[in-house]
Amino acid sequence: MEQFVAPQFIDVEDKIIGPITTRQFVMIIIGGIICFVAQKLLDTISFAIVSLLVVMAIILFGFIKINGRNFYDFAKSWMEVLRRPRVRVWYKQVSLAEVISQRKKENQPVVQTDFTPSRKTLLSKHLSELSLIVDTGGRYKG
Fold first, then answer.
1. How many whole angstroms separate alpha carbon 82 and alpha carbon 76?
2. How many Å apart are CA 18 and CA 25, to the nearest integer?
3. What is the pTM for the complete model shown?
4. Which of 48, 56, 88, 112 is the most buried (most CB within 10 A)?
C-alpha cells in the first residue's frame, strides 16, 4: 500500500517577505495606493486623516489577532452574533386552564394526573449494587 504524506500546519499562511504573508502584503499595497490617491486629490489635513485611518485599518485587519484568529474573522463573527444570536430562549408560562381549554378544542379528554412520583424505599444493599453497576459501566450485572 502506498504511503502519502499528510500536510501539516495548513492553517499557517505562506510568508513571502520576511514575516509578512501574502494577504498582509496585498493589504499594504492597496493601502499605499489609497494613500497615494488621497495625497494627489486631497489637501494636507484631509490627506493626513485618510492616511492615518488607512494605516490603522491595515494594522488592525492585517496584523492583529484575537484568540489566535485574524481580526477580520473575529469582526465577522461578532457582527453575526449581533445580528442574530444563536441561543433563543422562550419562557412561556402555561396555566392549567389554558391546557384544559386547548384539550377541549382538540376534543381530547382531560386527564388529571398527580405529578408526585411514587416513592419506593430502597435498601442500602440495593443502592450499593446500583452504584457498582454504574461504576463498572454496566459490566457488573448483580
1. 10
2. 11
3. 0.52
4. 48
